[in-house]
């Protein structure tokens, strides 16, 4: 049994070294926007081209002017429907970073409840950064770095994949402090205690010549976790209010104030059993005033004291939290001020605790386990080797354990491993990405089922943190057999000399684009839509387009000329052939999906609701609800719509008009940590054909296509049975080259396996993307910093010194030998099939931001990633970068891998030379005939 602690004020007087100035600005009366109950991306990096500097926004407002409020919210009546809570499940060691099993956290959910409640928070980046990256930053790389978090508990940000998680940022684990080239992402943000948190961020990038580090000022994003609306309080500074309040009662009444902490006895909502009841009693039923509550000294909530009493119910942490109550009586009421002695309590406590002792001091904010500060001036990298190794899991043909390890444990970097059919392929068949934090190692699991059966072109890209002396480096190897164990080694290119850090500019004082004007009242701005890109998407695009990657939403919008008429459009944030987000007519769009969307249902998803994925072990094609940068990421949205005119809400009805034989289409959201899925669309069940919303909504879910081929889908909007927007259809091309021919459809036969002559893969002058420098903003921006030149020894990163093949880049301890020891198993006869390189070259192109075909070789398919090869090397260059360190070699007793003839690989050169010679000869003959 734990001993409860009564803590003196003096013992808690120390505050964090980096505690922000506004630690006591609890009620946000002066905050321009309290964001809650809606979709919000924060922080969003902004690039100022005129001053070559960064700042950060919450959507379109500087982060300092906003507060994200996480209140209580519920959905349905099930035990899992407390949307603001997250319970750590049993037998998930990968979730140990969240706390003990069965501990319950305050959580901003990855998938929100109705009305996007309690809040749907994520990350993102402004198009100004995405477009600047290829021309301005080394390796097109920039990072959003978490410096530290000042708050009463721990904060974690991660994506839940059902049977696994991807960690993003952590207040206490400094291995997770950087997001590389942040893209539009929805994720969990959890807090171990309620109260006020200030997460301090910085954006960093290295100039393309390597001489300068561009860095933003440190800016704080505030989270208010639990409590009442922080904009509704009347106390701005509790110290001033306490000092001004009467010390003794003036009415002569006898009163003994008290603070009572107890397990919540009410069961009105799901999750109520985890709450703690916090009750203040002034001891006199005639007293009126305000109650200020803190957790570990951090503001929690301000509540009215009515008839001498105030009560709240909050989700305290699994660990003890120090609770203090401060009573400020109403002027002229005759009551006296009172502050309780801080009292320890937690969600695990079952016995009531009553505090009557008073304190003359309000304790300062002090986390007993403070968040460490991570903000290095430079990251030293003394050993440039990085290794990726694959080991096939026992008893499996296509499931692998992937380990990426750096020789130098101090290396911080993002990495991506891709497998192509050939070096000329535009989109990877299989890919995995991750980060190396402190310790320089990362271990993941990967399904390579789509790539098994033939040698692959393997590409390994590492993007070091901008503050390190290493530059983005890519290494590639052809004819890699996906055997029981294989891998690839890479030596980072290094910048000579040291880093010169740009002087930190002051944050911009005005938003870069028009912002919603705050209401004169203290209430938060209601239902402000996601306008982060809408200002650039007014014109409706109707030209046919194939979309292969990026974020997009099927969206209802009002007709600008007739606001009572509505239509369905596609909001396209992929920057395919455009400089910013655009609105497209749905019938002009094709979702082009390749073999990399193949997904095999794992053993962990056993609930029958996941039968839309087929049986366990079966494969289908899935467009995941969390973004994969190599696949389209479509969602649905009704943001900005006035629901008051739609009494039955708005339904999106989705029908399948055309599809391959015996196929199935579904749309579902994964249950938390692999719990039951919420299936909204299932073509095998006519009763499941609608996505229902009763408030402005932005939603992502898994789109499932059971077989390869061509699908035509139709969507329309309804209010009950009343049509709001007419039906429109679009094409989903799901790895069509692998679709088996139907007897009744001769035209759908597979192309011949014998390659035919086709134009060589090249980029014409008209197709070369022009990356514009962002126009100088007319809005105020930070003053231009003056860069101090670094010691200039070279203007380009240099390759690390090569060593003998026997000593260069030794494998990580315990890593497998980098030689194929077994022939790859034959490809399954699954209908998922395969596609030739010729078919992929002519039909599977990824179109870059200017519409030209680009090599999908970067660690990101954002515009920054699409131009990454301009700052690095081409696949063929990579293969020749360090020929003496070829890490892949077939063992002497291994079956020979199918070889590719140099003649077949370079046939187009011979054809072109022949054509030139033939043309020249013809010209000579014509001249002689004259």
End-to-end C-alpha gap: 109 Å
Mean pLDDT: 79
Question: Compute the gyration radius: what is it?
Answer: 30 Å
Q: Please describe the biggest sheet, giving its number of strands, its sense, and whether it closes into a barrel.
A: 8 strands, mixed
Uncertain regions: pLDDT < 50 for 5+ in a row?
Answer: 1-26, 498-537, 743-794, 801-908, 924-930
Described by the principal axes of the CA atoms, the overall outline is globular
Number of E strands = 57
Beta content comes to 25-35%
Structural class by helix and strand composition:
mainly beta
Number of discrete helical segments: 8
Helix content: under 10%
Question: What would you note in describing this structure?
Answer:
- There is one protein chain.
- The chain is mainly beta and 930 residues long.
- It contains eight helices and 57 strands.
- The longest helix is centred in the last third of the chain and has 23 residues, at 907-929.
- The N and C termini lie far apart (109 Å).
């Amino acid at each position: 049994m734990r001993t409860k602690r009564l803590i003196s004020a003096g013992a808690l007087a120390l505050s964090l070294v980096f505690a922000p100035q506004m630690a006591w600005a609890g009620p946000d009366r002066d905050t321009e926007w309290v964001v809650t109950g809606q979709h919000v991306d924060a922080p969003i990096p902004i690039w100022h081209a005129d001053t070559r500097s960064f700042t950060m926004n919450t959507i379109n407002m500087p982060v300092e002017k906003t507060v994200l409020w996480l209140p209580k919210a519920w959905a349905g009546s099930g035990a899992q429907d407390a949307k603001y809570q997250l319970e750590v499940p049993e037998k998930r060691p990968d979730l140990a970073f969240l706390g003990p099993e069965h501990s319950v956290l305050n959580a901003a959910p990855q998938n929100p409840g109705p009305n996007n409640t309690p809040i749907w928070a994520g990350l993102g980046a402004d198009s100004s950064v995405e477009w600047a990256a290829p021309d301005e930053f080394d390796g097109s790389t920039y990072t959003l770095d978490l410096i530290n978090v000042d708050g009463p508990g721990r904060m974690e940000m991660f994506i839940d994949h059902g049977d696994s998680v991807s960690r993003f940022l952590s207040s206490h684990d400094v291995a997770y402090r950087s997001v590389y080239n942040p893209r539009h992402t929805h994720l969990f943000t959890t807090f171990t205690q309620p109260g006020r948190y200030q997460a301090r961020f910085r954006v960093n990038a290295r100039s393309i010549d390597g001489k300068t580090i561009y860095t933003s000022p440190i800016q704080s994003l505030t989270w208010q976790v639990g409590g009442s609306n922080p904009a509704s309080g009347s106390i701005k500074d509790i110290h001033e209010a306490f000092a001004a309040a009467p010390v003794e009662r003036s009415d002569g009444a006898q009163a003994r104030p008290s603070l009572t902490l107890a397990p919540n006895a009410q069961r009105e909502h799901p999750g109520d059993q985890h709450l703690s009841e916090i009750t203040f009693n002034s001891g006199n039923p005639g007293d009126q005033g305000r109650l200020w509550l803190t957790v570990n000294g951090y503001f929690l909530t301000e509540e009215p004291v009515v008839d001498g009493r105030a009560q709240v119910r909050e989700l305290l942490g699994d660990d003890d939290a120090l609770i203090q109550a401060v009573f400020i009586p109403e002027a002229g009421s005759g009551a006296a001020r009172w502050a309780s002695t801080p009292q320890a309590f937690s969600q695990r406590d079952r016995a009531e605790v009553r505090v009557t002792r008073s304190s003359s001091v309000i304790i300062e904010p002090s986390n007993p386990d403070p968040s460490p500060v991570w903000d290095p001036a430079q990251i030293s990298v003394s050993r440039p080797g990085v290794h990726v190794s694959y080991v096939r899991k026992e008893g499996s043909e296509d499931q692998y354990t992937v380990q990426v390890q750096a020789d130098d444990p101090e290396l911080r970097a993002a990495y991506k491993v891709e497998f192509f059919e050939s070096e000329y392929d535009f989109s990877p068949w299989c890919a995995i990405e991750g980060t190396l934090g402190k310790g320089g190692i990362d271990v993941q699991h990967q399904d390579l089922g789509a790539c098994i059966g033939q040698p692959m072109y393997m590409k390994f890209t590492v993007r070091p943190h901008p503050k390190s002396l290493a530059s983005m480096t890519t290494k590639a190897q052809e004819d890699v057999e996906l055997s029981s164990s294989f891998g690839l080694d890479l030596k980072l290119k290094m910048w000579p000399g040291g880093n010169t850090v740009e002087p930190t500019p002051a944050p911009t004082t005005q938003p870069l684009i028009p912002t919603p004007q705050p209401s004169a009242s203290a209430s938060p701005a209601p239902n402000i839509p996601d306008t982060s890109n809408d200002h650039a998407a007014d014109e409706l695009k109707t030209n046919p387009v194939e979309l292969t990657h990026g974020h997009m939403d099927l969206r209802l919008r009002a007709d600008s000329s007739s606001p009572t008429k509505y239509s369905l459009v596609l909001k396209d944030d992929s920057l395919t052939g455009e400089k910013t987000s655009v609105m497209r007519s749905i019938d002009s769009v094709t979702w082009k999906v390749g073999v990399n969307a193949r997904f095999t249902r794992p053993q962990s998803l056993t609930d029958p609701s996941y039968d839309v994925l087929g049986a366990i072990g079966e494969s289908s094609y899935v467009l995941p609800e969390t973004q994969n940068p190599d696949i389209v990421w479509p969602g649905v949205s009704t943001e900005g719509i006035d629901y008051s005119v739609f009494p039955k809400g708005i339904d999106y009805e989705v029908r399948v008009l055309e599809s391959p034989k015996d196929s199935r289409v579904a749309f579902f959201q994964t249950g938390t940590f692999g719990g039951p899925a919420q299936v909204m669309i299932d073509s095998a069940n006519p009763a499941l054909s609608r996505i229902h919303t009763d408030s402005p909504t932005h939603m992502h879910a898994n789109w499932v296509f059971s077989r390869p081929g061509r699908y035509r889908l139709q969507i329309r909007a309804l209010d009950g049975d009343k049509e709001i927007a007419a039906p429109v259809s679009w094409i989903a091309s799901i790895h069509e080259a692998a679709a088996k021919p139907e007897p009744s459809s001769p035209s759908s036969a597979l192309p011949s396996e014998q390659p035919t002559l086709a134009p060589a893969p090249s980029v014409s002058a008209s197709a070369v993307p022009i990356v514009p420098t962002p126009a100088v903003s007319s809005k105020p921006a930070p003053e231009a910093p003056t860069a101090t030149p670094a010691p200039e020894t070279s203007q380009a990163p240099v390759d690390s010194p090569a060593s003998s093949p026997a000593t260069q880049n030794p494998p990580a301890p315990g890593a497998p030998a980098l030689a194929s020891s077994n022939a790859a198993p034959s490809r399954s006869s699954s209908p998922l099939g395969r596609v030739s390189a010729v078919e992929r070259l002519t039909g599977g192109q990824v179109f870059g931001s200017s519409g030209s075909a680009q090599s999908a070789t970067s660690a990101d398919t954002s515009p920054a990633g699409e131009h990454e090869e301009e700052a690095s090397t081409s696949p063929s260059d990579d293969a020749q970068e360090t020929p003496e360190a070829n890490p892949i070699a077939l063992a002497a007793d291994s079956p020979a891998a199918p070889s590719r003839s140099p003649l077949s690989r370079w046939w187009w050169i011979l054809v072109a030379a022949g054509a030139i010679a033939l043309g020249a000869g013809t010209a000579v003959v014509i001249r002689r005939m004259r």
